[in-house]
Request: fold
Amino acid sequence: MSGTSAALKPPADAVKPVRHPDAPAPGELLGAHYTHCFGCGGGQSHGLHLAARAGEGVALTAEFTVQPAHQGAPGLAHGGVLATALDESLGALNWLLRTIAVTGRLETDFVRPVPVGTTLHLAAEVTAVAGRKIYSTATGRIGGPGGPVVVRADALFIEVKVDHFIENGRPEEIRAAMDDPDQVRRTRAFEVNP
Reply:
């Protein structure tokens, strides 16, 4: 990525990421971490409904189709929606580490316009880990996984405890998520993003 800031360059003592032994298998659909998530949840009528699949190592692929509700300029995807798709893909990587983390920094390059009706194919991977810091990168392509790059991003995620969400989220949603009898869904609800 051009112009990546120093904050997104892993320090010299960073280590190669290690996929958690209980991470979803390569090719497995990761599913929504929270039904009301704008990026991946099915409970948002105008959400991205982004579908991510585990890849090899600490990588994944994802895609979503740009809907009319996602446009900025007439007939084109809004840049914020594209940044959201990148952020959602990058955040989903933390499920492969089995780490609760939030976006600390996201730098995005918009390379080409993305028309409404286009499917955005995303590829993301964790590149390094340094303490609580998780460094990752993603690209978005149109016309298929090997098509031209239209967006790309580098990100820094920070590992947090579940208390981060409990202390800062709206009490109604926190209670509903905490009361979910499905332990996996309960844990995943607090997976990504501040």
About this structure: The longest strand covers residues 119-130. The beta strands are 51-54, 59-65, 101-110, 119-130, 133-142, 149-159. The two ends are 24 Å apart (CA to CA).
